[in-house]
């Protein structure tokens, strides 16, 4: 089972930027990896997806502001978050679907999760 470890969360003011990192314990870049987030009292939602074929997808709420990328040599996944808004405040989780190249948005298909990193955006 692959282990995922996130880092890079923190507190910023609205309009600021953060870069989240996720390091996998083994080779995963040929499979789907994604970032999810969960705010208090809300369901966990998909934010950005990176397929094993190089495809990317974003939630409408973050399009144009967030960028997902991979560093295959480092088994790492990143999320560059710009123009942050208070509504982006949440726990952010790295996830992997080690069985598929294509990414589904349903969180239930993901079989590996990181412990989460908190992002807080103040107005």
List keywords for this structure.
123 residues, 11 strands, 0% helix, globular, 7-stranded mixed sheet, mainly beta, 4-stranded antiparallel sheet
Low-confidence parts: none
Largest sheet: 7 strands, mixed
The Rg value, from CA coordinates, equals: 13 Å
What is the overall silhouette?
globular
Helix content: under 10%
Report the strand count: 11
Overall pLDDT metric: 95
N- to C-terminal separation?
Answer: 40 Å
Task: Describe the model.
- The chain contains no helices and 11 strands.
- It has strands at 4-7, 10-13, 18-24, 32-38, 45-50, 56-58, 66-71, 76-81, 90-97, 112-113, 117-122.
- Strands 2, 4, 5, 6, 9, 10 and 11 form a 7-stranded mixed β-sheet that branches.
- A hairpin with a 4-residue loop joins strand 7 (66-71) and strand 8 (76-81).
- It starts with a strand and ends with a strand.
Task: Briefly characterize the structure.
This protein is mainly β and 123 residues long.
Secondary structure layout:
Elements: E1 4-7, E2 10-13, E3 18-24, E4 32-38, E5 45-50, E6 56-58, E7 66-71, E8 76-81, E9 90-97, E10 112-113, E11 117-122
Parallel strand pairs: 2-11
Antiparallel strand pairs: 1-3, 3-8, 4-5, 4-9, 5-6, 7-8, 9-10, 9-11
């Amino acid at each position: 089972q692959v282990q995922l470890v996130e880092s890079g969360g923190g507190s910023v003011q609205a309009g600021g930027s953060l870069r989240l990192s996720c390091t996998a314990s083994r080779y995963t870049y040929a499979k789907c990896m994604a970032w999810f987030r969960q705010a208090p009292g809300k369901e966990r939602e998909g934010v950005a997806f990176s397929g094993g074929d190089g495809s990317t997808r974003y939630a409408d709420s973050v399009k144009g502001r967030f960028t997902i990328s991979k560093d295959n040599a480092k088994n790492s996944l990143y999320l560059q978050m710009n123009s942050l808004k208070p509504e982006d405040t949440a726990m952010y989780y790295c996830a992997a679907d080690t069985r598929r190249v294509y990414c589904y948005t349903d969180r239930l298909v993901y079989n590996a999760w990181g412990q989460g990193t908190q992002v807080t955006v103040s107005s």
